[in-house]
Records
---
Amino acid sequence: MKTKLYWSQFNHLFNSKKYGHLLYNAETNAFANLSTNMFDLLNAISKEEKVVDELDDMTIEKFLQKKILVKDKNDYLHRRRLRYYFQAFDTSNLGLAVAPTTACNFICPYCYEENKVNKYMTEEVEQQLLSFIDGHKRTNILNLTWYGGEPLIGFKSIQRILEGLKKINHIKLGLHNMPTNGYLLTKEVSLFFKENPMNSIQVTIDGAKEHHDKLRMLPGNFPTFDKIVENLDSFIEYNPKTPVFIRMNLLNDNIDSFGKTHKELSSHWKGKDVLIYPAFVKDFSDSCKSNCNLVSREDKIDFFRELKEKYNIEVKFKPFNSSTGLCGATHVNYFVVGPEGEMYKCWNDLGVSEKVIGYVDGREKNYDVLTRYLAGPTIMDDNECKDCSIMPICTGGCLWVRHKNLYENKDLDYSCCARKNNLDKTIELQYEETLRTAKAKY
């Protein structure tokens, strides 16, 4: 008796005007260019108007390898959930996002940390944090991100904590990075990180000088663009092996300037390990909802296509398989540490007292918040996500937003994958990249 086979829910049949009949599978990122007869047959099979047995054995075998046909409709979801559990409860690594201060020297209009009280880490809390790290005896790798506010306002704390880490013998520093606005990235700071290297540093430059200086400014509307570029020049000189990621936050106001700005900054740092990339501003704060001109999901794909066609900026359309949808908030050994030693599961919660899950000195724990993050709703528990044809290449959006909507009756966009609203268009772009990659190999 033959094993019953099923048409995968992650298949997408698409009639491209440029490339003809295409079949794409999101679980394996596999493409097939089909004849009209095969396209019609598969279309009928997908609608259960025809049976899989009408395919020849060789085709069935190929389709099984590429997960176009499956033996168990729930197999992918079970495997994804298992990988999620393995990663979420792995204690070999400790992940910390440490905010030595909640203060910031900028007044960006889209900031989701607005109206939070400025606090600074004391040397006593620094020692408590080091003891907390040392107490993880079964852990041998610390992945560390400096966060804020603006973390470099707390530079002295950063220096003391990194020196203290060198005395903890059983833990080695793994990933070490920092997002910063770059204004305080002085020569002293650059030289310090030459001796205490980071794996990467992220600095935000929001477009050309005239636009950046309207969005990322000091109190009093003082501009910051020139100072940031000057500081980055110095940092790159002293830290040539540290990758620099230049993040450009995009709204409809500045999205058209990305291509030009990318070319200008790429030329400025030509030959250096600098990557300029776009990031779409999200509606995390009420002020942004009223003041920000957010980019729609539909417009994002057109933006990426234009980057390739108009500016010849290489864009990777082929997605990576998202094996779990795991973020730090759902990892048992990941914590955001605030300047008073308070701990959170998500850095969007920093400074929100009711989201504190405990303290590095061992004080009481808030198990209500902790269990929501560790055992609460994920992409695998969302019926819309479970039925989605591109679930394997989607992280499920922001878990923090998912929780806000569920537990606080909010109506925030949790950044469902932009591909979903532009599936035919993005599949065609992915196919073009697949053809380019294949051609480059020969």
Note: The chain is about 35% helix and 15% strand.
---
Amino acid sequence: MRLVVATANPDKAAELGAILEEELDDLVELVARPQGVGEVEETGESLEDNARLKAVALVAATGEAAVADDTGLEVVALGGAPGTWSARFAGEAATYADNVAKLLAVLEGEIDRRARFRTVVVCRFPDGTEIIGEGVVEGEIVPVPRGFGGFGYDPVFVPEGGGGRTFAEMSPAEKHELSHRGLALRCLAARLKQSKAAAPASSPRLPTS
């Protein structure tokens, strides 16, 4: 099975590829997003909406099955924000550092630092069927960035079960074991395996989970 990786973010693509290749072994062949495919506007009201928009666009552009994710950081003190705006929290052209700086600024003096990372992954097939995986990890925002690994908000997010370390202080393998994206992709991989096993040998269709 060939799957086109929909994301144009190289950091996300690297994580997605590493986790899916480990979980699915030789079940799938991951294909990089074609360079000629333009950015997909993320106008959905939810992470699932945005992931689906990206997956559908890549299926339309390539004629092949595609996998896309959307991730949001939900901060309790901010009423769940930035959520679907996490990548654009400090503006459309914001860098990782810009977003982190804004987050720390708006949380300055805040006692309640609880937050969660949520990822939804959509695997879309040319026949319109799809399989979805979701992962959530609880944690808290630290006041000062720590660590040099990962990307995005990783230097300020301490996940539960991480021994007090931020994602940026972990090795890739440690992060993947605990992270929202790791959980979502392992969920997706398990459902893909189930669907593959249940599908008739003569049929290329995979049922919606």
Note: Residues 180-198 form the longest helix (19 residues).
---
Amino acid sequence: MFKLTTDDTEGQTPEITQSLDELAREGARRMIAAALEAEVAQYVEGLRHHRDENGHALVVRNGKSHHERTVQMGAGSIKIRAPRVDDRRPEHRFTSKILPPYMRRSPRLEEALPVLYLRGLSTGDFSEALEALLGSAAAGFSATTITRLLNVWQEEYKAWRKRSLAGKEYVYIWADGVYFNIRLEEDRLACLVIVGVLPDGRKEVIALEDGYRESTESWASVLRDLKRRGMTAPVLAVGDGNLGFWAALRDVFPETQEQRCWKHKIANVLDKLPKRLQARAKEQLHEIMYAPDRGSALEEIAVFEKEYGTRYAKAAETLIKDQDRMLTFFDFPAEHWLHLRTTNPIESTFATVKARTKKTKGAGSRKAGLAMAWKLLMAAQGRWRRVNAPHLVALVKAGVEFPNGEADMLQCDPEPEKLFMPIPWILAADGVAIHKI
């Protein structure tokens, strides 16, 4: 327990005894109340010039608060009474962004549920797991409640996978297959995931589908569906050496350039070498991967082949296979190389899930597994940052070339209305030449 003792002017020492959890909840309640008051004050102040024919303000404080509402948060359940606004303007109504109508649970807590599920907790374990977050408020999270939430997430996922992609222009995409164990089935779930980068540098999930062992037909089905819903061909796709994806990509989006994932390539090369040589070989492979330009990378590949090609031909052959497609990233902005060398945006998101699926049988059905994977991705997506130098993504989309990562007085034929021009760049009057200042 937390004990606070204070001396007052009468010499008395009132004692306040509260637990840290109680103090956290009280502090959260007060901060939210203050934020709600500030939000309302700002709203009313910003609209004070709106008057009726008699000069009376149309937007004023109501003077009364809404009914007290209990909201479940990470610190536990707190009671909040939101201030009210009387907005008499036609078809206008004040809606709090901090505490939207009918919200009873913190969005962060909503995110915790699919994470807990994906980490192996069954519906029967939720109450115990959430007690650490909510205390007695976790009593409302019964197995029936969680099952109902799972059904809701599945319906949300169904609607999401049918959404229109018209107007979406993805410049880069990453594709990977993520596998999950299914408790009630023998075959694992091959979750086909595609994440893309928009011209403003934002990353977002494009597709998440059930595929049969990453086959060509499975990937082709995903890509054809994306194209049917309005997705245009991306400039560059990044993925591992899985032949299924690349064969499907060439069929559906033949104009898209290809970049193989260096993380997967390094693992495959090292697998062909004895363990005593792997540490040194890994350093050499990193020299290739992080080379300052294409010429240097080719020189390092030649060095590797000379050193290992005679005794470990398979390792050298694995490295040289698809060599040109391993070095495609050199034709794009150097600031983006970090993002384009690997499928890490997908790998890192699912890292903890992959680790957990080795110890648990996972979701009870393929539908539940897909819905949970989607929910996890949606939660993660809200925290993703843009790619480095996001303004350069639009230039790539416009057709600007970046040999060895640098653009230098290049001729292209961009569509001016689609080109976002950052400060260090100017577009010539003829709309054709782009010059770096």
Note: The CA atoms of residues 118 and 353 lie 6 Å apart.
